Amino acid sequence: MVQEEVLGEKGKAKPGYEALWKLKNRYKPISPTGEELVLSAEVQAFVDKHFQPHDAQSFARGADPLLVAIAKARGLTIITQERHTIPEVDGSTGRVKGKPTLTYVAFAFGVRCLSLMSALVEVPPKP
Q1: Per residue in 44-78, pLDDT tens?
Q2: Burial letters for 91-121: b for 16+ Cβ neighbours within 10 Å, e otherwise?
């Protein structure tokens, strides 16, 4: 499954997008439910609380809050090309330095993230 907003994101030249488009007839787009929209607001509230305002606003403009909410509500794993990083906290503000990453926010909500290559390794071959 792929979240609809992910299909419209910029960056189609990034690794993984080509594979996504080649598989376009083998997955189905999913849209958020009302519950997932509420959860998306909770995800964004977490980002607003823990990151600098300009970085939190940037996160809100993308598909990531909905992606985390849908994965959390449905017990799904997110496949992403983003690296897993441990964020650093600014001692003077108590907020995380830099932009929020999908992998960190997903981790904070108990959502598993895998790289595309890791996901391909985990998928058992069909007999």
Answers
A1: 999 999 999 999 999 998 889 999 999 999 999 99
A2: eeeebbeeebbbbbbbbeeebebbbeeeeee
Q: CA 66, 55, 86: angle at the middle one, nearest 5?
A: 80
Round to whole Å and give the CA distance between 104 and 112: 10
| 16 domain-assigned | no
3-state SS, residue 10: coil
Query: Which domain range does residue 70 map to?
Result: 33-122
Is position 127 within any domain? no
Phi, psi of 79 (to 5 degrees): -100, 125
The pLDDT tens digits for 104-121 are: 999 999 999 998 788 878
* CA 37 – CA 22 distance, rounded (Å): 29
